[in-house]
Amino acid sequence: MALEGRPGAVVSVSRDDAHRFSKPVVVSIRLLAGIGVEGDSHAGPTVQHRYAKKRDPTAPNLCQVHFMAAELFDDLVPTGYTVAPGELGENVTTIGIDLMTLPLGTRLHLGSEAVVSITGMRSPCSLINGYQKGLMKQLIKTDAAGAVQRRGGIMGVVVTGGIVHPSDRIRVELPVGEHLPLGVV
Asked: Which residues contact 142 (CB under 8 A, 6 or more apart)?
């Protein structure tokens, strides 16, 4: 699952204590088991995303940590968009891992301690167009066969807490048994 010749790694980490679209880049983040990113507005054992919280505030928080691949930012440049780490609201920007192809339940080991279990794909919302007009069409596309391709990153829950820094290695642990594709969370 890592790109050939390169191990997976953390490029950048971000958090924000308020529900804003982009998250400021920080020196490190602390992941808390069953909660998410300490000090982040999306941290908590129950759903924290505003739209989902309105539907069922008691639902489990499957979106404690948002991962985005730095390779996506490079792919966007020829289409006229410039995006930097944290600007699409992710907590962890990665390199060297094809995030969107990971199966459900994959565990990402970040640095020496933290472990996050992947719960699904992020469903980009229309707020992305408020950030940069037309960007959402680059993050959700339909291929020639009519299949929807999502590129807005993946979400997970913290299994084991720890501090995560840029340049920390990421080890991918695939789930045992049948590999199920990611759905939208």
From this structure: 148, 149
CA of 119: how far to CAs of 4, 10, 134, in Å? Answer: 25, 19, 27
pLDDT digits (tens, 9 = 90+) for 90-147: 999 999 999 999 999 999 999 999 999 999 999 887 789 999 999 999 999 888 999 9
Task: Judge contact between 78 and 62, C-beta under 8 A.
Answer: no
Pairing, β 36-37 against β 148-150:
unpaired
| Domain ranges (residues) in the chain | 8-172
Q: What is the pTM of this model?
A: 0.94
User: Beta strand pairing status for 36-37 and 92-95?
Assistant: unpaired
Question: Where are the extended beta strands (E) located within 52-168?
Answer: 65-69, 92-95, 107-110, 114-121, 140-142, 148-150, 154-160, 162-164
User: 8-172 maps to which CATH number?
Assistant: 2.40.33.20
Task: Give the mean pLDDT of 160-176.
Answer: 98
Rounded to whole angstroms, the Cα distance separating 124 from 130 reads 12
3-60 pLDDT, tens digit each: 444 579 999 999 999 999 999 999 999 999 999 999 999 999 999 988 888 999 999 9
3-class SS at 131? Answer: helix
Other beta carbons within 10 Å of 11: 19
